[in-house]
Each structure stands twice: as C-alpha cells, then as structure tokens.
Amino acid sequence: MNCCRQWTPVVAMIAVNFALAITNVLFKKILDEGVSLTIILMYRQAISAVSLAPIAFFWERKNRPKLTARILCQLFLNALIGATLAQYFVLLGLEYTSVTFACAFLDMVPAITFILALPFGLEKVNIRKKAGTAKVLGTLVCVGGAMVLTLYKGKILVRSNSRATTRIINNANTTISTKKKERWAIGSIFMVAGCTFWSSWFLLQAWIGKTYPCKYSSNAFFSFFSAIQSAILSLIMERDFTKWILKEKLELITVAYAGTVASGLCYVGMSWCVKHKGPVFTSAFTPLIQILVAMFDFSILHGQIYFGSVIGSILVVIGLYTLLWGRNSEAEEILQLKPPK
Q1: Residue partners of 164: CB distance under 8 A and separation at least 6
Q2: pLDDT value of residue 92
Q3: Angle at Cα 14 formed by Cα 42 and Cα 318, nearest 5°?
Q4: What dihedral do alpha carbons 230, 232, 238, 244 form, nearest 10°?
Q5: What number of CA atoms fall less than 13 Å from residue 319's CA on the CB side?
Q6: Of the residues 29, 64, 147, 160, which has the maximum number of CB atoms within 10 A of its CB?
Q7: pLDDT tens digit string along 84-118?
Q8: Least confident residue range of 67-81, 114-128, 189-203
Q9: Are 154 and 308 in contact (CB under 8 A)?
Q10: End-to-end CA gap in the chain
C-alpha cells in the first residue's frame, strides 16, 4: 500500500505530461495554419471552466471553504500568471519556432522552479548532504540536457520513412537557417518568459492549495478567470471577428481536447501533486514533454531523430531521476527524525 502511494504522483505526472505533449503537437499544427493564439487560449480556458464547474459543484459542495475577496484575488492572480501569461508566451514561442525546439525550453521549468522556491523557503538545500547535492546536480544536468537539445543537432541517426516528408523538412530547415533566425531568437525570448511564468504558477499553487484546498473548484475559478483575461486580450489584439470562428475539424478537436484534458484534468492533477509533493517535484517531470514530443514528431509527423536529441534526452532523464532521488532521500531523512507517535 505504501509503495502504491509513493508511485501514484509519479504515474500521475507521467500521464499529465503525455497529455500536454499531445496538446503541444496539435497546437503547432493549427498555429501553422494561421489560427489566432489568443482565440485558442480563450476557448481553451472557457471549455476547461465549463467542464470542471459541474464536477466542482457536486464533488466539493460539502467541504468547500467560504470564498472571500482575498481568495478570489489570489485565484485571479494565479490565473493571470499560470494560465493567461504563461500559455500566451509559450504559444507565441511555439508559433515563432518548432514544436521540438519550443518544448526543449520547457525543460528549464524544474530549474527555474527550484531557484524561485529557495528564497520562499519552499525548498531547502544542504550541500553537505548527499540529498542536497543530488538536487542541485540533478537540476544542473536537466538544464544541460535542455541546452544540448537546443544547441546541438548532430548527425541523423534514424531517417523518416517518407521521402516527401524528408524533402519538406530539409526545405523547412534551409528556410529557417536563411530567413527565420531572427524569428527563432524572438521565439526563444518568449519561451523563457513563458517558462518563468509557469514556474511561478507552481509556487503560487503551493500557496493557494493551503488557503483554498479544493482542487476542482480552485481550477474551475482558475480557468474562468483566465477565459475572461484571454477574452480581453483577444479583443485588444484580434479585431477581425471572422478569426474568432473555428471552422476546421482539427481546430475544434484541438481546442476541445486542450480545454477538457490539458487545462482541465492536467491542471487538477498538477494541483494535487503540488499539494502532496511540492512545486519542485511536480515541475521536475516537465522535461518528459520534450522526449514525448520527439517521439510523436518521428512516429506521427515523420520527423528525424538526431544524435543531439538522443544525448540531450538521456541527460534530461538522468537529471530528472537524480533530482527525484535527492527529494526522496531528503523526505526519508525528515521522517526518520520525527519522533514516533
């Protein structure tokens, strides 16, 4: 029973990141077709709020704490940072770059979260102990893996089976190298901003989880506030109302999936994990998105696997498990120090 309890957060976070990886691939496809990212964000959050509201009402109606002005302000701020700004900048970065390149930047989230958590006392590091050293080393290796994925391509290890797709990819790579270097640089800045906002959300969620512990209600308000914020952003940035109507089947499927699964169930799962395991543990699984996207890119989109991608992915996994080992060792030490009841 203890073993199942230990592995539940791990399995939950793997499932969450698997769902988020699918979302990123789908978003890249519809963004390339010219769909407005602010409109996508608005519909995504609106669908999430509608899908979570009935569950929150019936599931948590007996134990839901009273809503105060302070809690509502916290939830509004959480939505602004964790959904509206974080997702807007990530989608903007995704629009300017490729899905694999953009997801490589998400590998920075555990390191940023770990650094941001230190001054607030949510994480403590004792370099003299093995657990503390492992946490720092794991974070650095994760970042190193992300940098390898981003900066080093290397030789092609496995080619796509589709010759036509290979020609398209080669032409796209040539275009990017000659015409889109500036766009990729701007996209990188947007991705760093998005990752910083997302890392901040993990810390805010740890704080809100204590004052308003109902995960379904919390995320329903979170999505509702974000939908309003995104609608205001859409009105400012997208005056052509014909773009507000989604016509293609893939666009409708992507927004429906992103709203119910990615913004709905995934954020509930992450909120639960933050409450039980802390913000750094939860964010440590973010690098899995990069590995999963690379797999989808090869198997579904017929991309190619490069030596740099393999090395970078291996480093990310090593860093992830080193960080998790450090946290588990630290948790065991704390339990041993506690006096028996």
Answers
A1: none
A2: 86
A3: 120
A4: 60
A5: 29
A6: 160
A7: 999 899 888 888 877 777 777 777 777 788 788 88
A8: 114-128
A9: yes
A10: 20
CA 92/CA 217 separation, integer angstroms = 29
Our CA angle for 151, 125, 279, nearest 5°, is 70
User: CA torsion 136→205→321→305, rounded to 10°?
Assistant: -110
CA dist 51 and 39 (Å) reads: 18
Q: Residue 73 is encoded by which pair of tokens?
A: 């302000």
From CA 237, how far away is CA 39, in angstroms rounded?
10
For tokens 């017929």, the residue is 302
Nearest to 86 by CA among 262, 236, 239: 262
- What is the chain's Cα-based Rg? 20
Look up residue 71 and give its two tokens.
């809690």
Q: CB pairs under 8 A, 24+ apart, for 162-170?
A: 162/302, 165/301, 165/302, 165/303, 166/302, 166/304, 169/303, 169/304
The helix (H) or strand (E) run that includes residue 305 is strand 305-306
Buried b / exposed e over 6-25, threshold 16 CB at 10 Å, is eeebeebbeebbebbbbbbb
101 vs 212, residue with greater confidence: 212
**DSSP alpha helix (H) spans, the chain:** 2-32, 37-59, 69-79, 86-96, 99-106, 109-117, 130-151, 163-179, 181-211, 215-237, 249-257, 267-277, 279-283, 287-299, 307-337
Instruction: Annotate 72-89 with b (16+ C-beta within 10 A) or e (fewer).
Output: eebbbebbbbbbbbbbbb
Tokens representing residue 43 in the block:
């519909």
